[in-house]
Specification:
The complex is a heterodimer.
Chain A lengths: L24 H15 L5 E5 L7 H4 L3 E4 L5 H11 L4 E7 H7 L1 H10 L4 E6 L29 H4 L5 H5 L6 E7 L3 H19 L4 E7 L3 H4 L3 H15 L3 E4 L5
Parallel strand pairs in A: 1-2, 1-3, 3-4, 4-6, 5-6
Antiparallel strand pairs in A: 5-7
Helix pairs in contact in A: 1-8, 4-5
Chain B lengths: L3 E5 H11 L4 E4 L7 H9 L6 E4 L3 H13 L4 E5 L1 H17 L3 E7 L15 H5 L10 E3 L4 H18 L2 E7 H5 L1 E5 L24 E2 L6 H21 L3 E4 L6 E4 L2 H16 L4 E6 L1 E3 L3 H7 L5 E6 L5 H9 L5 E5 L8 H13 L5
Parallel strand pairs in B: 2-3, 2-4, 4-5, 5-7, 6-7, 11-12, 11-14, 14-15
Antiparallel strand pairs in B: 1-8, 6-13, 10-12
Classes of the chains: A alpha/beta, B alpha/beta.
Chain lengths: ~250, ~350
């Protein structure tokens, strides 16, 4: 008998996902699920699904879930956490959801120091609606609503959420990670774990921004899409920890 | 004898909510309802509750969604422009069948409008307000005591039917002081096995309003409609004031009903056979009450602080059998006793069977 070295985390359901080939959501779901398993908090976890590609997250995570309106995840999570202060509460949000329509909700959740964990998936585009410009779309990046590339003089430069949130004075854990190599995936998992531990220790708000691939809407094969993250996104969106609670 | 308190409508409402077991309040400042969040901020922590001032009405109603989904008795309050902002969340609450109490102390609109009392949010309140086929239970109290009684009732109704409920008051009811008693009843909170509290020892719970399969969404909508139909059958509330032998009826709710009562009393002294139908439930509209008196009705006068909104429900109920006329003031102006009385005298002089 061989030794079991790899299995589905208990925090993931046995449901095939609807994600496109090469999409990073599957990896990120798995990292979150592994961390929930390792911390042993699955039975007290409530996840908040976004509007966007990950809207069906409630069918994939094996814990209680609420589906929020577009961008309102951190507000919904606030409601849950204030009622159940010992629960583990996380939101899972894309860049349209968090960085555009839900910007106020995430900043104020951070300001209040809500003890929640935000998993923020930045793929520089609106995925589910078919590849429109997001606030995180890079300058000159082509999307269906920037057919000649994002023009800086019309639409400005993309928002850096991790940097912006790390200016909030209330203690929090803020990191940016990616998944373009196995090494980066391992680093990302450490950040997710630290984020959930920040919550479990009651130290404050935590957010992990993932630079993620959207091969379908980037019009790239999956392997090329991963290289595109490293080549184009990482220089603008540097990886690393931006803020760690002093008491961590 | 129960203790009596002299309280503002807004404060009495907040106290009643706490006594009814509400422990979570998510608010955002707007005139003329600020006494409610202020009262909650002061008194909820005394009973182990939580007050959060949200960054916007949009966030506040979504916090209500999260808290209601976690099984709590929860409330938010606002006034007209703020209630418009909450409509997104209210639609989601209705879709996900989450119980909560929403208060609208109505001010004049449209837009930023004014801060004086109005009843111009009747359409928004009684037609659902946001997108999709849904209803809220909407009650319109006419006194501080009734605000208290309705608040107790409302948390029960919200939990019983798993529905968001809305108190439609106005700036005047919220600000005026009257003596009130708080009913001495023990609060029983029903079990909420559907709430997301962590899936220990049970299958996963999901709070959501998404049903991508059209057949599934239709089934969900038909289920909601069945619930609304049950509510319409069971939860109509109204007061019939001096209606026994009346043939000329004022229809008014909330603040305008108070004026209507005085007008009816005076009209009676003048020999006019006037009565008042006061809907307390605005949705469901109490159409059953009209059937008791429609055979002897000459005319219905709807009296509103709007350009005429509830009149549409009165007309739908009367269905052409009797004339329905309107008198109202808008913009935050409260109709004057003498103007309403004069309108009633004119109607009494008219030959309605000519």
């Amino acid at each position: 008998m061989g030794k079991l070295v790899f299995k589905r985390p208990e925090s993931l359901q046995k449901t095939p996902t609807h994600y496109c080939p090469g999409c990073s959501h599957g990896i990120i779901h798995r990292l979150v699920a592994e961390v929930i398993d390792e911390l042993g908090v699955r039975e007290k976890t409530i996840g908040i699904a976004p509007v966007g590609c990950a809207v069906f997250a409630y069918n994939y995570f094996n814990c209680d879930m609420q589906e929020a309106a577009h961008g309102r995840g951190p507000a919904v999570a606030t409601g849950v956490k204030r009622v159940l202060p010992r629960a583990t509460v996380f939101t899972y949000q894309g860049d349209g959801d968090l960085a555009s329509i839900g910007l106020a909700e995430v900043i104020h959740a951070a300001m209040r120091g809500e003890k929640i964990t935000v998993i923020f998936v930045n793929n520089a585009i609106y995925g589910m609606t078919g590849g429109q410009m997001a606030p995180t779309t890079l300058v000159n990046q082509k999307t269906t609503t920037t057919p000649t590339g994002r023009l800086e003089e019309y639409f400005g430069k993309p928002l850096k959420i991790a940097e912006m949130l790390s200016t909030v004075e209330t203690p929090s854990y803020i990191a940016r990670v990616s998944v373009f190599t196995p090494k980066e995936i391992l680093r990302a998992k450490k950040a997710v774990k630290k984020a959930f531990e920040t919550q479990e220790k009651g130290l404050g708000f935590s957010l992990v921004e993932f630079l993620a691939a959207c091969p379908t809407n980037w019009n790239l094969p999956p392997v090329e899409a991963l290289k595109w993250i490293e080549k184009n996104m990482v220089p603008y969106y540097p990886l690393g920890e931006f803020k760690v609670p002093e008491k961590f | 004898m129960p203790e009596k308190f002299l309280m503002k409508g807004n404060e009495a409402l907040a106290e009643a909510a706490i006594r009814a077991g509400c422990r979570y309040f998510f608010g955002y400042p707007i005139t003329p309802q600020n006494e409610i969040p202020e009262y909650m901020a002061k008194h909820l922590p005394e009973v182990g509750g939580v007050y959060v001032q949200a960054e916007s009405e949009v966030a506040a109603i979504n916090m209500v969604y999260g808290a209601a989904g976690a099984g709590a008795r929860v409330m938010t309050s606002s006034s007209s422009p703020g209630i418009s902002l909450k409509q997104e969340g209210i639609s989601y609450l209705a879709g996900a069948e989450l119980p909560c109490v929403i208060v609208n102390m109505v001010r004049g609109g449209p837009g930023l409008g004014g801060i004086q009392p109005a009843q111009s949010d009747y359409f928004q309140a009684t037609r659902g307000g946001g997108h999709g086929d849904y209803r809220l239970i909407v009650l319109g109290p006419d006194s501080v005591q009734e605000i208290v009684d309705i608040t107790f009732l409302f948390f029960e109704l919200a939990d019983k039917y798993r529905i968001p409920v809305l108190i439609l008051g106005d700036g005047l009811l919220g600000q005026m002081m009257e003596p009130v008693e708080f009913p001495d009843i023990s609060v029983e909170k029903p079990a909420k096995p559907w709430a997301t509290t962590g899936m220990k020892d049970r299958p996963q719970n999901i709070i959501k309003s998404l049903h991508l399969d059209p057949l599934e969404l239709e089934r969900h909508n038909l289920k909601l409609q069945k619930k609304y139909s049950e509510i319409s059958d069971n939860e109509q509330r109204m007061e019939l004031f001096m209606c026994e032998d009346a043939d000329l009826f004022i229809v008014a709710y909330g603040t305008t009903a108070r004026i209507a009562k005085s007008v009816v009393v005076r009209a009676r002294e003048e020999g006019i056979a006037a009565g008042l139908i006061r809907p307390i439930s605005l949705w469901p509209f109490p159409n059953k009450a009209f059937e008791k008196i429609i055979d002897r009705a000459k005319v219905f006068l709807t009296l509103e602080m709007s350009c005429g909104q509830m009149i549409e429900d009165v007309k739908l109920t009367v269905n052409g059998r009797v004339p329905v006329v309107f008198y109202g003031r808008t913009g935050g102006i409260v109709p004057k006793f003498r103007d309403v009385l004069e309108k009633l005298r004119q109607l009494d002089r008219s030959d309605w069977h000519g």
